[in-house]
Amino acid sequence: MVKLKVKVGPKGQIVIPKVFRDIYRIKVGGTAILEPLEDGLLIRGIRNPDDTLKWIRERRNRIKGKIGRLGDLKNIDLEGEFED
User: Fold this and answer.
1) Are 25 and 47 a contacting pair, CB within 8 Å?
2) Most buried in the list 16, 50, 54, 72, measured by CB within 10 Å?
């Protein structure tokens, strides 16, 4: 397994090396999925926009009825949302 050390910028940004962006289809202006794991963070490229929409709809259904407006997110335990 290849390991690569990258610096984190002042806004929490990291640069994903081009070779990885190309392999995993992460494009400038595109979308990636961040998935918290027990021992780290997984960054996934998205193969097509339908996969993104499916992911968003699944997450929306999980929190349906818990919030009324976006501003109500302050009342939701977002850490619990990622404990799957």
Assistant:
1) yes
2) 16
Among 54, 76, 52, residue whose Cα is nearest residue 63: 76
Predicted pLDDT of residue 75: 64
Structure tokens at 38: 């027990």
pLDDT along the chain (84 residues), means of 10: 86 90 85 86 81 79 66 62 58
pTM for the whole structure: 0.50
Q: Which residue bears the tokens 């640069």?
A: 15
Domain 1-46 of CATH type 2.60.40:
no
Tell how far CA 84 is from the center of its chain.
14
Amino acid at 13: Q
